[in-house]
Write a structure and sequence with these properties.
The chain has 251 residues and is an alpha+beta fold. The protein folds into 2 domains: 75 residues, Glutaredoxin (3-Layer(aba) Sandwich); 142 residues, Glutathione S-transferase Yfyf (Class Pi), Chain A, domain 2, CATH 1.20.1050.10. The protein is 56% helix and 7% strand. It is built from 12 helices and 4 strands; from the N terminus they run E-H-E-H-E-E-H-H-H-H-H-H-H-H-H-H. It has a 4-stranded mixed sheet with strand order 2-1-3-4, covered by helices on one side. Helix 1 crosses helix 11 and helix 4 packs antiparallel against helix 7. The longest helix has 36 residues. The structure holds glutathione.
């Protein structure tokens, strides 16, 4: 049996949701409400000691890390392959998924936290927030929550993260000159993983991603949006309150 603990169909939660839908795999969906801080509750920390989504549970065994989850799914359920068979194309796919995790996602996440999570933190009364902070298992996440509950990130860091997002989109535009998908001829986990992040860029940083500047990325985005699996993933529960919906970013 496959179970997925996930939040809204965005960012790291979106990656395995698309992968599962592409493969047509049945799974039990466990929605974790990040805005109610369920990810730090003891029952969830028992499933993922980092207190973060997503987590795949396969026949009782928990697998964390969205990129690893997707590679695991592709290895165990290879019928609809999402990793290129050619070793060179597969290496290119992995360079992209590594790039998402190490470069693009941290930059985008800082912007998302600054814009949206700040508002979530501000809505919690101070004494309650202190208690919530104390139970966050990862020190880095505790610092991130405390930062947005305070003055947020310094402007130089935010500017650098915006710059990095622009670099990432530029790199996609360059890569798409030589093939329809990021790893070449075949649609792969590179597309799934980067789509899950890029999705919010036209809204948050339209200067980096638009028809005039990045036509190939816009075309790729339209092809991604048209995929039934992507549409099915996006149709998963989204409990973002109306007031925060316009930001559409994930924690
Ligand atoms: N490296 C992890 C990162 C997971 C992660 O950052 N999850 C976010 C949602 S996209 C989360 O659970 N945030 C809530 C929090 O840290 O309190 C992965 O790729 O799965």
């Amino acid at each position: 049996m496959l179970e997925l603990y996930h939040a809204e169909p965005r960012a790291n939660s979106m990656k395995p949701l698309i992968c599962l839908k592409e493969k047509g795999l049945d799974f039990v969906s466990h929605y974790v409400d990040l805005l109610r801080f369920e990810q730090h509750e003891p029952w969830f920390v028992k499933i993922n000691a980092n207190g973060q989504v997503p987590v795949l549970v396969h026949d009782g065994a928990a697998i964390t890390e969205s990129t690893v989850i997707n590679e695991y799914l592709d290895e165990v359920f290879p019928e609809v392959p999402l990793r290129p068979a050619d070793p060179l194309a597969r290496a290119r796919m992995r360079v992209w998924t590594k790039y998402v995790d190490e470069y693009f996602c941290p930059a985008l996440s800082m912007i998302g936290w600054h814009i949206m999570v700040r508002r979530i933190a501000a809505a919690v009364p101070k004494h309650e927030f202190e208690k919530l902070l104390a139970r966050i298992p990862l020190a880095e996440q505790r610092i991130k929550w405390a930062t947005v509950a305070g003055d947020s990130f310094p402007e130089e860091q935010l500017a650098d993260s915006r710059r990095r997002c622009g670099i990432a989109i530029g790199r996609m535009e360059e890569t798409l000159k030589s093939g329809p998908w990021l790893a070449g001829d075949a649609y792969s986990l590179a597309d799934v993983d980067i789509y899950s992040m890029v999705d919010s860029i036209p809204r948050l940083m339209p200067e980096h991603m638009n028809e005039a500047k990045t036509p190939r990325v816009m075309d790729w985005l339209a092809r991604m949006n048209a995929r039934p699996a992507v549409q099915a993933a996006r149709a998963m529960p989204d409990k973002t309150p109306e007031t925060l919906r316009q930001f559409g970013v994930e924690l």
